[in-house]
């Protein structure tokens, strides 16, 4: 059984940690909650004890015969602090040991995850940013906070990511043993399917759900990368620690990807852009004709975003990953078509999906073959899209040049 220490510091987002705790316990993890004294001002000890099935303590003087300030950190498989306030980040970065949580952080030799939550000004303050950089340099995973409603009427960056996404992030960290092979790297991922509007209510689109692209963004973040995710018409929660940009059309996707990818270490084009768009946009809804005839829609070809990105790399050693949703026919197999696309697009890796008979789209699992320009080929048997995402990240890490 995986042993998790959940640290809770004193911020209004402490109530969300109760949902995170429930996620851990219901999935079979053994969880010990260590709230700070100020956290108990927001959510009391009975809540943490009822949900974890264990007593909680804040000070090293409680249950002293068990030496909790040493044992908890030594025995943990993961320590996650959510929310992590500016004060907690500062104390952790300075190596203070003035309560049970900070003592545990000093003795932990397992992966440590901080999920910050605070007002925007506090997050952006140079002192906080220096503390975050220090923690990351020492090997901790500090999740980027989300943007949205804060306390009062304030909005901005500093919101605690959703508990479900923090849990998925932590589950990835546990599964990978805290591997941080993408630390210090910037990875840009696209996901979803673009829409090309015919009139104010109708559009040309495709069946891409964005699940695989979001899984890749989550996997890269859990391995230490700074991740920018460009989502096209995706109705999924933002992955924890990932900057998300929302677009709709292929033109918007192209502009966002070119901008976000400048200087990136890896680009993963998992989105499904529409190949064509209407030559003219009808200003009003297209009406049915009385004679039963249908309007003629003239189409024009959209730009090839993947080819443009691979042909105009903005950094030496930049790794470009494309996706191929293919079906075979009487002349060529899925892999035959995929290898042609790999050469034509000039990418380093191509993730090949056989989408015949409705496979892949909108499903929780996937199977793929990852082809490399260097002649490599990795078969991925049917597995969750999260597991497929880590195979893609494995290949990206393999191809990235050594950091200086």
Any chance you could write out the topology, listing elements then pairs?
Layout (H helix, E strand, L loop, with lengths): L2 E6 L5 H13 L3 E6 L9 H8 L15 H8 L2 E7 L1 H9 L5 H8 L4 E5 L3 H5 L1 H12 L3 E2 L3 E4 L5 E5 L3 H13 L10 E7 L3 E2 L5 E2 L6 H12 L3 E7 L9 E6 L2 H12 L4 E4 L6 E3 L20 E3 L3 H7 L7 E8 L7 H12 L3 E6 L10 E8 L4 E8 H15 L5
Parallel strand pairs: 1-2, 1-3, 3-4, 4-5, 8-11, 8-13, 11-12, 13-16, 16-17
Antiparallel strand pairs: 6-7, 9-10, 14-15, 17-18, 18-19
Helix pairs in contact: 1-2, 1-8, 3-5, 4-7, 8-9, 9-13
Pathway: Cofactor biosynthesis; coenzyme A biosynthesis; CoA from (R)-pantothenate: step 3/5; Cofactor biosynthesis; coenzyme A biosynthesis; CoA from (R)-pantothenate: step 2/5
Keywords: Decarboxylase, Flavoprotein, FMN, Ligase, Lyase, Magnesium, Metal-binding, Multifunctional enzyme
GO biological process, one term: pantothenate catabolic process
Characterization of the model:
It is a single chain. This protein is α/β, with parallel strands linked by helices. It folds into 2 domains: 3-175, Flavin prenyltransferase-like (Rossmann fold, 3-Layer(aba) Sandwich), CATH 3.40.50; 186-399, 3-Layer(aba) Sandwich (Rossmann fold). Helices cover 33% and strands 25% of the residues. It contains 13 helices and 19 strands. The protein has helices spanning 14-26, 45-52, 68-75, 86-94, 100-107, 120-124, 126-137, 163-175, 211-222, 250-261, 305-311, 334-345, 385-399, and strands at 3-8, 30-35, 78-84, 112-116, 141-142, 146-149, 155-159, 186-192, 196-197, 203-204, 226-232, 242-247, 266-269, 276-278, 299-301, 319-326, 349-354, 365-372, 377-384. The strands form 5 sheets. Strands 12-11-8-13-16-17-18-19 form an 8-stranded mixed sheet, sandwiched between helices. Strands 2-1-3-4-5 form a 5-stranded parallel sheet, with helices on both faces. Strand 6 and strand 7 (155-159) form a beta hairpin. Helix 3 crosses helix 5 (100-107) and helix 4 packs across helix 7. It is globular, with a radius of gyration of 24 Å. The two termini are 38 Å apart. 46% of the residues are buried. The model has no long low-confidence stretch (mean pLDDT 92).
